[in-house]
Amino acid sequence: MHEFGPRTLDFNRRIALMAIINRTPDSFYDGGRTFALEAAVDAALQAADDGADWVDIGGAPFAPGPAIPA
Prior knowledge:
- The protein is of the alpha+beta class.
- It has one helix at 37-49, and strands at 2-4, 7-9, 18-22, 54-58.
């Protein structure tokens, strides 16, 4: 059993579902559709409503480029 805030998941009994929301303007997947804060929040809430157990916010591009400051 693993507790994540108010949720408890037992990975021995069920597969957990993670949604990924891209917050980069040049996302290869969605072309920046969820870059704006409101769009990202709406997408995260929709993912939770659709059954996501947790949401990963992708805020840094994976593509080559300058280092992202902490």
